[in-house]
Amino acid sequence: MKLFPIRGGIHPDYRKELTSEKAIVALPLPAALYIPLQQHIGAPAEVLVAEGEMVKKGQMIARNQGAVSASQHAPTSGRIRTVTEVTAPHPSGLPQTTVILEPDGKDEWGELPEPIADPFAADAHAINGRVARSGIVGMGGAAFPSAIKLNLGEQKKLDTLLLNGAECEPYLTCDDRVMREYPDEIIDGARIMAHALGTPRIVICIEQNKPQAIEIMTRAASTFAAIEVIPVPVQYPMGSERHLVQAITGIETPARKLTADLGVVVHNVSTARAVHHAVRFGRPLVARVVTVSGGALREPKNILTPIGARVADLVEFCGGFSARPESVVNGGPMMGQPLPSLDVPVVKGTSGILALTAEEINDRPASACIRCGSCVTICPCGLSPVEMSAFIRKDNLEGAAKLGVMDCFSCGSCSYVCPSHVPLVHYFNYAKGALNDLERERSKNERIKTLAEVRIIRIEKATEAKRAALAARKPASDTASPGNSPSSNSDEAKAATDEKANA
Amino acid sequence: MSIATVKKSGPFAHGTSSVQKTMFLVLLALTPATVFNLYLFGWPAILLFAVTVGACVAVEAGCLALAGKPVKVTLADCSAILTGWLLAMSLPPWAPWWIGVLGAIFAIALAKHAFGGLGQNVFNPAMVGRTVMLISFPVAMTIWVAPHPLFSAGAPGLFEAFAITFGGNVPDTMSAASALGHIKTELSRGIPVTQSMAQVPDLMDMTLGYRAGSMGETSLLLILAGGLFLMAKRIISWHIPVSMMGSLFLIAALFHAIDPARFTSGTFHLVSGATFLGAFFIATDYVTSPVSKSGQLIFGIGVGLLTWSIRNFAGYPEGMAFAVLLMNSLSPIIDQYTRPRAFGRNRKGEPLPLEKKP
Ligand code: SF4
Ligand code: SF4
Question: Which residues 113-142 on chain B approach chain A with CB closer than 8 angstroms?
Answer without folding.
Answer: 117-120
